[in-house]
Design goal:
Layout lengths: L5 E7 L6 E10 L4 H13 L4 E12 L1 H16 L3 E5 L3 H7 L9 E3 L2 H9 L4
């Protein structure tokens, strides 16, 4: 799968209680949102319940990318799971705050806080 956004995956089923951490770099937009959703849906089909999305290096996000993040959060929640976004930048939050994105996904300034939240999510 070729994405404009670089995706790095880190998983530790024992240390982090089955949390999958995805790092997004570059952009999440109309050019790659479908592939990103497909990738995460595949993980969900494999049993993913806890997703941590690290967006520290995400430089651009358009409405399609926002829609993908919401769709992924809804899909995981439908499967009795939870999603958290960490290490957001001020630039990205200027896009997400006006649309009340916090209603769909929990945001945390650090990876450790996101992991702590997902660990305590009773899943």
């Amino acid at each position: 799968m070729k994405l404009n956004a670089e995706i790095n995956i880190q998983a530790s089923a024992t240390k982090d209680k089955g949390i999958i951490r995805v790092e997004l770099k570059g952009s999440l937009d109309n050019n790659n949102s479908f592939e990103f959703e497909f990738f995460v849906y595949t993980l969900i089909s494999g049993g993913l319940k806890k997703l941590l999305i690290d967006i520290d290096d995400l430089q651009y996000l358009d409405s399609t990318g926002i829609g993908s993040l919401i769709a992924i959060a809804k899909k995981i929640r439908k499967e009795n799971g939870e999603t958290a976004i960490t290490r957001y930048t001020a630039q990205i939050m200027t896009i997400l705050r006006p649309i009340n994105m916090e209603k769909f996904i929990q945001f945390f300034p650090t990876i450790e806080e996101g992991i702590s939240y997902l660990k305590s999510a009773g899943i």
